[in-house]
Amino acid sequence: MGPTVVTPARPAATDAPVPGRRRRSGRVRAASATGTGVFHLLSATAALLFLAPLVHTALNSLKTPEEASAQPPTWFPRSLSLANYGRLTTFGEGIGTYLVNSLVLSALSVLFTVVASVLAGYGFARFTFRGRGLLFGTTLLILMVPYASLLLPLYIVLGWLGLQNTVVGVALVLTMFQLPFGVFLMRNSFESVPREIEEAALVDGATSLRALRYVSLPLVAPGVATVALFSFIASWNEFLAPLIFLTGGDRYTLPIMLTFLRSGAYGAVDYGALQAGVVLAVLPTLVVYLLLQRYYVAGLTGGALRG
Amino acid sequence: MSTATAPGAAATGAPRAPAPRRRPGHGSLTRRPATGWLFVLPAALIVVVLFLLPLGVLLVMSFTDWPLLGAPEPAGLENYASIPDDDLFVGAIGFTLLYTALATALIFGISFVLAAVSASPRRGAAFYRTAFFLPYVVGTAAAALIWYAAVNPRTGVMERLARAVGLTDGSFGFLATPDKALWTTLSLVVWKFIGFQVVVLVVGLQSVPGELYEAARMDGASSLQRLRWITLPFLRPTLALLLVLSVTGSLLAFDQFYVLTGGGPDRSTVTLVFAIYQTAFTSFDLGRAAALSVVLLLALVAVNGLQLLALRHRED
C-alpha cells in the first residue's frame, strides 16, 4: 500500500497524449486544431487570472515606497527597488524576528510530526498490543473534530503545562492536528515493507529501533518526505493557533505580524511594505511546493482520498 | 493490513496460545506489547494530553462561568440556554450557511471546467494545472492580505481596474457593503482553495478506464452521454468526499474574514468561528465560547455523519 501512496499521480499531460493522438483521425484533425486554439485561449486566460494576484503582489513589492503608495496606483513598476523590504525591518521587532519565529515554529512542528508519525506508524504496522485499535481510531477521530473548537480548551491545557505563549506549545498543537494524516500514511508505508527484510537484522541481534532506523526507514523515505512537506506548509501558513497562543510582540509569527501591519498597529498602513511581507510569507511554500511537487500531490491523492 | 500481522490479536490483544509457527522470529516481532507501546507512546501522549484532555476540558468549561482571569464557577446550563439570545452567534449561523452554500457551489462549478482543462491530453495542461494549484499552498492569511492590498480604496489596483472598465466613476468599495464584502471574500476563497479540488478531480478522472470511452464512442454515444453515464458515476465517491471537505471547511471559515473584512461592515461577515473567537478573546467569556464550540462540534459531526451516510446509501 505504501508505495502506491507515495507514487506520484502521473500528470495527465505526460501519459495521455499517446492514445489521444492515436485516436485522432484525419477528419477530426482540422476541427481539433481550432479546438486546440480555443482550449489554449481559455486555459491561458484562466491561468493568467490565477497567477495575477501573486505576480501583481511581487511586482508591487518591488516598487519604490513612493510609487507603492501612489494614488491612483501604477499598473507596473516604473523602477525597481528593494526599499519596501528594507522598511519591513522597522516594524515592531523587525521582520527578522518574525521570520525566525515562523521558521522555528515550522521546524519544530515538522520534527515533532515526523518523529511521532514514524514511530507510531511503525508501532501500528509491526506490533500488536492492547488498545492498538482504540488508539489508532482515536487518532483518526482528530479529523472529525473542528479544529477551531479545540483551540479554546487547548489554551487552558497549555497553561497547565506551562507552555502558554511558547513556540513549543504551538508546535505541539500543530503536531496534534497533523497526526491523523502522518500516522495513517506512515502506517500504510511500513505495512508495504515486507517484515522479512527486518527479520534478518533482528535475528542478528539488532533492536527494533535499529531495525527501523537502518532497514525500513530508508524504504519509506518518500512517505516521510510527504509528511514533512505537509507539516511544513501547514505550520508555516498557520494563523489561528499562533494568534491565540502567542502574545507579546516578539513571539509573533510572520502571518500574525503582517495582519498587525495591515490593521495599522504600527502606524498608517504601508501597502508596499505589506506586499513585501506577503512575498516573504508566500515564497518559501511556493518554492518548497514546486521542488517537491510530486510528494505533495502523492499526499493529497493518497492521504486525502483514502482517509 | 499486512498478512503477517496475527489476525484477531489486534482486536483482543490477549496473549494467545502459540499458533503453529512456520518461521522462527515471527512471533517475537508481533507479540511484544511493551515494545509496541514504546513506539506509539509519543503519539499516544499527544493524543491524550492535547486532544482527549482538551475535549473533556471543553465540555467542563461549557458548564462553567469561566473568565479569562480569575476562578471559574459552575454555571449549569446557562451558557447553553443563553445561546438563542446571542445575536452575534445567531447572526453568524445564517451568514456561515449562506457563505458555505455559495462557496461550495462556486468551487464545484468552476472546478469542473478547470479539471477538464487540467486533464486534457493537450500540451500545456500540466502548466495550467500548476497555475490553478499554486494558490493552494499560499496561506489563507497571506492570501487575504493580497486581496486586502489589491482592493484598498487608496492604492488598490482593483479600484483602478473597476474605473478602467467603467464599473464606477469614483470608488467601487470592494469591502464597503455586506454584499460586496461577501463576494470579494468569495473570489479570494475560490482562488485560494479550488486548486485542491481540481487536482483531486483530475486524479478521479484518470481512474476512469479509457476502454469505456472507446466502447461508448463506437456505440455512437455523444460526449454529453459519455459524461452522464461514464464519467459521473465513476467520480461519485470523489465528488462526495469533495463535498464533505468543502462544506466542513467552509463552515469553519475564519482566517479570510478575520484578515480581509474584519467581520465588517457592521458585523455582517462574522462566521461561527469568528463569533466564538470574539466571545472568548474580546468578551473574555470562555465558558460561553466553550458552549458555542460544543454546539459547533456537534453540528459538524452531524453534517459529516449525514454526508457519509448519504454517500454509503448511494453506493449500495
Automatic annotation (TrEMBL), chain A:
Pfam families linked to this entry: BPD_transp_1
SUPFAM superfamilies for the chain: MetI-like
Keyword entries, A-Z: Cell membrane, Membrane, Transmembrane, Transmembrane helix, Transport
Every ABC transmembrane type-1 domain range: 99-292
Membrane topology: Multi-pass membrane protein
Subcellular location: Cell membrane
Gene Ontology CC: plasma membrane
Transcription regulation keyword on record: no
Residue ranges of the TM segments: 30-55, 98-122, 134-161, 167-186, 214-233, 273-292
CDD domains (UniProt xref): TM_PBP2
Family matches, as InterPro entries: MetI-like, MetI-like_sf
Region (Disordered): 1-25
Gene Ontology biological-process entries: transmembrane transport
Similarity section: Belongs to the binding-protein-dependent transport system permease family.
Database matches in PANTHER family: ABC TRANSPORTER PERMEASE PROTEIN MG189-RELATED-RELATED (PTHR43744), SN-GLYCEROL-3-PHOSPHATE TRANSPORT SYSTEM PERMEASE PROTEIN UGPE (PTHR43744:SF8)
Name this protein carries in UniProt: ABC transporter, permease protein 2 (Cluster 1, maltose/g3p/polyamine/iron)
